[in-house]
Structure formats: C-alpha cells, structure tokens
Amino acid sequence: MRAGFPEFRLGSVLATSFTATLTERRGDPVERIPVPQRLVDWLAVNGLAVDSCTTDQLDLARELRESIHLAATAGALQEALPASAVQVINDRSVGGRAAATLTPEGTREWRLGSPSRVEDALSVIAADAISILADERDGRLALCASPTCRAAFFDTSQSRTRKWCEMNTCGNRQKKARFNAKQREDRSSAG
User: Fold this and answer.
1) φ and ψ at 10, to 5 degrees?
2) DSSP label at residue 3
3) What is the tens place of the pLDDT at every residue in 14-54?
4) What global pTM score does this model have?
C-alpha cells in the first residue's frame, strides 16, 4: 500500500471490485486510482500485473470502470443496458491480449501478453463484466443500500439478499447511524 492513498476495496468479483476504485459516488467521492501507478498497484493485487501505465491508459481504465458501473446499475435495476456503456465494455474486451490458463490446482489464472499492457488487463476485467451482465454466473447484481455509496456489486450469498457492497464499511456505517439515532430517540423520550 502506498502512503497517502486510500486503501483498495477488494472483493471476489473482479469487475465489481474494479468499480469500487471509485467509492461514495453519491457522497464525497473517493478515487482509489488517482494516478497511473495506483492502477498498476490495483491490477497487481488482482493478479493482473502490468509493466507500466500512462495517463491515457488510466483514462481508458476509468472509462471502462464507469461503463461497468452504469451497466451493472442498469442490470441491478433490471433496466436496459446503456448502449454507450456496452460499446466501451466490448471495445475493451477485444482490445487486449490475455488468455485464461489452468493452474495445477485446477483454478483459472490470466496470462497477459508480453510485455503486459494495461489494455490486456482491461480486456480481462471487461470479459468478467460481460459474464456478469450476460447472466452467465450464479448470483445477482445489486446496489449498495447506503445512500451515499450505491455501488453495484455481485451478490453471491446463498439467499441473494445482501444489502451492502461491504459490511465492514457501508454496512457498519449504516448500523452505527441507526444505533446513534435510537440512542438520541431514547434520550429525548427519557428527558
């Protein structure tokens, strides 16, 4: 973790974890990839190590992030996917050189082109978004119940009723707010 930057929010679903590089979208937005090196860091943490990143590549990544967020939000609300978002996702998906490989443990890993480029990593993220948006995976798209967050996330819980993008942040914040409101109510009833 590089000093001076907000921590990454890492999840088990690559595409929606990528959209979480911008949080608190309806409050005071927190940009978690403000400079090219932070994108390099995020990609490395997610098994998509690249050699370097330019400002233009960071712009491509942010455009993909916002397109995935728009499409995932529409999917969660069961609305039509925005054509412009679909186009960006498709363009990034075909714009890289990445291949799925099988490990001896039976898991999938991604091998990026050589030299590894940001575009290669973005193609993997776009492919992951496509698999979610095309309803190919077991789970459902949902929106965080936090009024300041509203992040799109992929709910793979058994009941498919998860309310928060992350319990440690948005869920705890909302529970604390309810607790404090109840405490104030109790104090004013007693006084």
Assistant:
1) -105, 135
2) T
3) 999 999 999 988 888 999 999 999 999 999 999 999 999 99
4) 0.85
The two structure tokens encoding residue 13: 């679903």
Per cent of the chain over pLDDT 70 is 93
Q: How many CB atoms lie within 10 A of CB 152?
A: 25
CA angle 145, 149, 150 (to 5 degrees): 55
At 55, the pLDDT band (50, 70, 90 cuts) reads very high
Q: Note the pLDDT of residue 149.
A: 86
DSSP assignment of 13-81: -HHHHHHTTEE-TTSS-EES--SHHHHHHHHHHTT---S---HHHHHHHHHHHHHHHHHHHHHHTT-PP
Query: Closest Cα to residue 63, out of 122, 16, 128?
Result: 122
Residue 73, CA distances (Å) to 7, 134, 136 in order: 23, 14, 17
Amino acid identity of residue 53, one-letter, is: C
Residue 65 reports pLDDT greater than 80: yes
Q: Which phi and psi angles does 100 have, rounded to 5°? A: -80, 135
